[in-house]
Amino acid sequence: MSGLSSYLLSTLSKVGGIGGSGVPDFHFTIGDKIEGATGNSIWELHNALSTDGKREATVFVFEKTRGSSYTTVAQNALKRMRTLRHPGMLRYLEGAETSDAIYIATERVTPLTLVSLDSDDSNSELKRWGLYKVAETLRFINEDCKLVHANVSMASVFVTKAGEWRLGGLELVDVLSGDPAGSQIYRHYTAAVPGYAAHMAPEMQSQSWSNVESGKPGAIDGWGLACLIYQTYNGALTAASQLHAQGSIPKLLWPMYQRMLVTDLRRCTTPGEFLQSASRPQS
Predict the structure, then answer these.
(1) 31, 45 contact by CB (below 8 A)
(2) What are the tens digits of pLDDT across the range 25-58?
(3) Quick one: angle between helices 271-279 and 219-234, nearest 10?
């Protein structure tokens, strides 16, 4: 057997037989792991190729040995990836769940955390357009689907080969607290999301669920969008106290950014309101 064949077989065995009989109805073959992505989410990311060799993809792999709480949010992510479709969302191709793991195949992407966001003019345009598309996608989730994302940060955004930003990170998506149709997964499982405390809205941190319920739908995601803006322009976010420093956030964006950080969710700017302000001509 050639060295390449041995390598491919070894790789397949490590991920439970992706592309083979080990994962029924999953038509993607795993490739190399995307280095640097581990630790930013519950998933390990791999480059992949459809079994017919015609489509490049990224496969998100979750091993259930991590525990039941992690498995619950991974299952929720798979459920939401299957049912939520929008041009600004990470494009779902196929998913599978076995007794040992969960697999999600998407369009080929790179985590935004691994993309250089230097402050040259071309990157400035890409940042503004990327943030606009994320806000537009959040408006769809909040206003059209009547859901909250509840996990917006740089770790939940991915970049296509064409440079388009896509929103993923659907582990905590659910209906707003107080709706009997949902389980409010974001109430109980935030600890399963790596680094979540740094971008957690204050009302969620204090578990003030009555304030969450009486706040604007989407206000939680307004806070998350502000966190993403901070990370896009200023880099790593390790504590909420950093959010009040402007740093490299553009002056025109700063007032809207601040309105998303209002601690009263009844007054906090939502992604939909952010879009209205961003689209309004400057006087």
Answers:
(1) no
(2) 899 998 999 999 888 999 999 999 999 999 999 9
(3) 60
